[in-house]
């Protein structure tokens, strides 16, 4: 499939922005952190809308879009926990679930890859072999996690607004939905779909089909 689409490039830009967001958090560039975080959120909404509006969705997009979200979430969790803005126990829950899902994705990609199974073919996303379908609770959990990270990054920029109680409530909600969403991937039968491999016809069968197509033309 053609992976050079606008939604995929927007997703790739979020992947590039993630380490810069982490750098800004660790060096207390709060305004830059908030701006880059807003960019990531806008492009996340925009690439999905463009893909649906102009039918530019790809199997690769279903893989790298959640990957970009998880990498951004990983960077945010590590950086904010290192700065003391996010509880360590919550960062462990979020990252633990994401690590488990990443290991599962690696496994399903390998077992679904059509032969020959080589390292270069494994990383060739133009050869889709499995499709990841986020569960409903996982979608809500992602939105809640991003909401929590947004509130945490806004807090230093707006010190006059007391977000302490709201942050504690959001942290508890995110912890509960993170555990719930991780369990949903285990018990859901539709979360991962192995794509069928195209079967090649033997040369003899192809020749017979070509002859059958030419015979009506001769009769005419």
Automatic annotation (TrEMBL):
One of its GO terms (cellular component) is mitochondrion. Residues 209-220 have a biased composition (Basic and acidic residues). It comes from the Eukaryota. The chain crosses the membrane at residues 20-42, 54-82. Residues 196-220 are annotated as: Disordered. GO terms for biological process: cardiolipin biosynthetic process. InterPro entries: CDP-alcohol_PTase-I, CDP-OH_P_trans, CDP-OH_PTrfase_TM_dom, CDP_ALCOHOL_P_TRANSF_CS, Phosphatidylglycerol_P_synth. Belongs to the CDP-alcohol phosphatidyltransferase class-I family. This is Cardiolipin synthase. It comes from Podospora appendiculata.
């Amino acid at each position: 499939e053609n992976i050079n689409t606008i939604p995929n490039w927007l997703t790739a830009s979020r992947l590039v922005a993630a380490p810069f967001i982490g750098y800004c958090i660790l060096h207390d560039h709060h305004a830059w952190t908030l701006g880059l975080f807003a960019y990531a959120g806008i492009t996340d909404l925009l690439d999905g809308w463009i893909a649906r509006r102009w039918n530019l969705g790809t199997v690769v997009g279903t893989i790298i879009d959640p990957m970009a979200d998880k990498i951004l979430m990983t960077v945010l969790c590590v950086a904010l926990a290192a700065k003391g803005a996010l509880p360590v126990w919550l960062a462990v829950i979020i990252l633990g679930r994401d690590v488990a899902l990443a290991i599962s994705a690696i496994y399903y990609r390998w077992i679904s890859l059509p032969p020959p199974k080589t390292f270069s073919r494994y990383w060739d996303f133009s050869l889709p072999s499995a499709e990841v379908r986020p569960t409903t609770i996982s979608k809500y959990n992602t939105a809640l996690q991003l909401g929590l990270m947004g509130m945490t990054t806004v807090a230093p920029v707006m010190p006059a607004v007391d977000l302490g109680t709201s942050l504690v409530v959001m942290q508890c909600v995110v912890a509960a939905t993170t555990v719930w969403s991780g369990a949903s991937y285990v018990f859901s039968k539709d979360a991962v779909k192995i794509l069928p491999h195209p079967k090649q016809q033997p040369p003899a069968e192809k020749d017979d089909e070509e002859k059958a197509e030419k015979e009506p033309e001769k009769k005419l």
